[in-house]
Amino acid sequence: MSGKLQRISVIDSHTEGEPTRVVMDGVPDIGGGTMRERLSGFVENADFLRAALLGEPRGFEAMVGALLCDSELEECECGVIFFNNAGLLNHCLHGTIGLVKTLEFIGQITAGEHRIETPVGIVTATLNPEGSVTVANVPSYRYRKSVVVDVPGWGEIMGDIAWGGNWFFLIDGFGPELSYDNISMLSDFTLAVMDALSSAGITGENGGRIDHVEVFGPPPDDQSDSRNFVMCPGGQYDRSPCGTGTSAKLACLYDAGKLKPGSIWRQSSILKTVFSGRIEPLEGNRVIPIVTGRAWVNSQSVMIMDQDDPFAFGIAR
Ligand code: PYC
User: What spacing in Å lies between the alpha carbon of 9 and ligand 1's midpoint?
Assistant: First the structure.
């Protein structure tokens, strides 16, 4: 071997098809404070992880990274900062499920309730005895309903804007048919919607960027109530039903009077994998979404950055 080597340990999993790469150690100091406060330290000192760990030649663009952190909050098992090919994510629920299974894999936790600090708040994750994970998410709500945006090449598209830990534009009844064969067309459509929202200055509350677009269609079978296709920032679609997207959907259904406390909503992904969800009502139209899914650890590795390797930190785009 040549040159100076930097090593970073990771554990990979997938949650209902969507990959998560948890960064265990080997990362520069990003400072202390809340997870929200540490985001600037991540951008300054650890942003290279995105290309190095998620990009080629080591990773692939659909991977979501999760930097495991200590939390300064007494009640929290740990903290986590999520990132993808395009930048930092506010939150990621499939990644939270993957993180919980990773902590179980390394022997840090067993079945039961565990609080995890994310940049948008504390979530309570329950590792269930049979292996699934249930996450009580951050408060979620529908912000605006029936918003119309003119999408070049697609015409006027109507959707709701909702918060589920990320900002979503939720579309039902417009766009290509939801089938696996249509992924390329669904990607074009949802990316065009995202661009059109941004050009029209349509945002979440307080100017929050809508960086996820979610399209709904009929369930593919009797295992779910609906199928979705979710486009994430960075141009990759979610292989899982998207946990923050399912949370946004649950909030919209509740606000529309279509989901009562105690009822279960089963959300299928484009791959036909399913998250099941329910809500606990808060004040007004806010809810705590409670989402259950499965994840499997599928790799544990040490990434090696050799200073003589021209692509040690990924192939710059
Ligand atoms: O499951 O919340 C989620 C998520 C966000 C982006 C990718 N997955």
Answer: 22
Ligand 1: residues within 6 Å at CB?
Answer: 18, 64, 89, 92-94, 166, 232, 238, 240, 242-244
The whole model's pTM is what? 0.97
Alpha-carbon 238 to chain mean position: 8
Handedness of CA 160, 86, 138, 273 (dihedral sign): positive
Angle, helices 93-105/243-255, rounded to nearest 10 degrees: 130
pLDDT in tens, the chain (317 residues): 456 999 999 999 999 999 999 999 999 999 999 999 999 999 999 999 999 999 999 999 999 999 999 999 999 999 999 999 999 999 999 999 999 999 999 999 999 999 999 999 999 999 999 999 999 999 999 999 999 999 999 999 999 999 999 999 999 999 999 999 999 999 999 999 999 999 999 999 999 999 999 999 999 999 999 999 999 999 999 999 999 999 999 999 999 999 999 999 999 999 999 999 999 999 999 999 999 999 999 999 999 999 999 999 999 76
